[in-house]
Write a structure and sequence with these properties.
Elements (H helix, E strand, L loop, with lengths): L15 H6 L8 H24 L3 H27 L2 E7 L5 E7 L12 H27 L3 H26 L2 H20 L9
Antiparallel strand pairs: 1-2
Helix pairs in contact: 2-3, 2-4, 3-5, 4-5
Keywords: Membrane, Transmembrane, Transmembrane helix
Family: Belongs to the TVP23 family.
Protein name: Golgi apparatus membrane protein TVP23 homolog
Length: 203
């Protein structure tokens, strides 16, 4: 069961009132910011250059999977909590049932956040961009019949996609809220089209 009492912020933490109060352009956790990008970017670079660096497929595969695993652990357990105040995990209750928990750091009494806008942008850009690159790699391996690489790119999609899904759930709350948000967005787009001046014109 998810925790719905969370801080309601945009994906890139660009709230106008907060940015006016403080620019928050300083990176407060440089080590976390570095490793948030290091493992995932390194996995992509190794995948692109592995055939030039070595002829051993096994060595490349093991290296990429290790980098992806380190990235999954670091982003899930460290960088998300430090950079944007989000975390998600799985817990088993006394009855043996598994529950996924999605949390966001609550706003302090002064109404300020401990994460900076620069860190938030780095976090979300890295979190969203890299899984998209792995999806492109997956289609490329599929259409070029590189079957041996398909398992590697699928691992990249699954591990980085899981973190992306988990942190988006942290932002929007429960699945009900996620569905409601999508429904509200589509409703607003429909109403916007209906209100266009030329929509009701007749021939």
């Amino acid at each position: 069961d998810s925790n719905d009492d969370i801080e309601d912020v945009s994906l890139f933490d660009a709230d106008d009132d907060v940015s006016r109060r403080s620019k928050k352009s300083k990176i407060r956790h440089p080590v976390a910011s570095f490793f948030h990008l290091f493992f995932r970017v390194s996995a992509i670079v190794v995948y692109l250059l592995c055939e030039l660096l070595t002829s051993s497929f096994i060595a490349c595969m093991v290296t990429i999977i290790l980098l992806l695993s380190c990235d999954f652990w670091a982003v899930k357990n460290v960088t998300g909590r430090l950079m944007v105040g989000l975390r998600w995990w799985n817990q088993v209750d006394d009855d043996g049932r598994s529950h996924w928990v999605f949390e966001a750091r609550k706003v302090s009494a002064q109404g300020s956040k401990t994460s900076s806008e620069a860190e938030s942008r780095i976090f979300w850009l890295g979190l969203i961009t890299c899984p998209m690159i792995w999806v492109i790699f997956a289609f490329s391996a599929l259409f070029s019949f590189k079957v041996k690489w398909l398992a590697v790119v699928v691992m990249g999609v699954v591990l980085q996609g899981a973190n992306l899904y988990g942190y988006i759930r942290c932002k929007v709350g429960s699945r009900k809220n996620l569905t409601s948000m999508a429904t509200n967005y589509l409703g607003k787009q429909f109403l916007r089209q209906v209100r266009l001046p030329g929509f009701w014109k007749t021939s």
